[in-house]
């Protein structure tokens, strides 16, 4: 089981969406498409801290940690290394996968630009962020292709259309 510790800016709360439930389902779908499927039934709590923020907060973190002084849609800060992820099925203290933060305005604008629902886009970003917490990346073409395929399969599990084919159709 994955536990989500959620902190949401009022802008996100005003949408009346059950973000904690969505984040838990997104995290489980991402884990199911990872090399760490045993986390789904871990013998100990597995935790993710999720902050639903505004652009200015994400921009400050992006500048501080990545040297990019602009907002981005999602940032992930992994806390567990590969050996800790492998040992998740063993009894022990809570496994902290890491922290994620999403930027409201960026998510909203991207969803509008792509002609997709805000909740579906935010869910996609949560899946993407959890895959980063699990050690996946998209720094080269092979990694990007692998991560994208995992995202597509996870989103399919959640009933969300392939966002990459939708983006290609829009252009």
Fill in the keyword field for this structure:
single chain; 171 residues; alpha/beta; 4 strands; 51% helix; Collagenase (Catalytic Domain)
Structure characterization notes:
The chain is α/β, with parallel strands linked by helices. The chain has one domain: Collagenase (Catalytic Domain) (3-Layer(aba) Sandwich). Helices cover 51% and strands 17% of the residues. The protein contains eight helices and four strands. It has helices at residues 10-13, 19-32, 55-66, 82-86, 104-114, 118-133, 141-157, 163-170, and strands at 2-8, 46-53, 74-78, 95-103. It has a four-stranded mixed β-sheet with strand order 1-2-4-3, with helices on both faces. The chain is globular and about 45 Å long.
Outline the fold blueprint.
Blueprint: E1 2-8, H1 10-13, H2 19-32, E2 46-53, H3 55-66, E3 74-78, H4 82-86, E4 95-103, H5 104-114, H6 118-133, H7 141-157, H8 163-170
Parallel strand pairs: 1-2, 2-4
Antiparallel strand pairs: 3-4
Helix pairs in contact: 2-6, 2-7, 5-6, 6-7
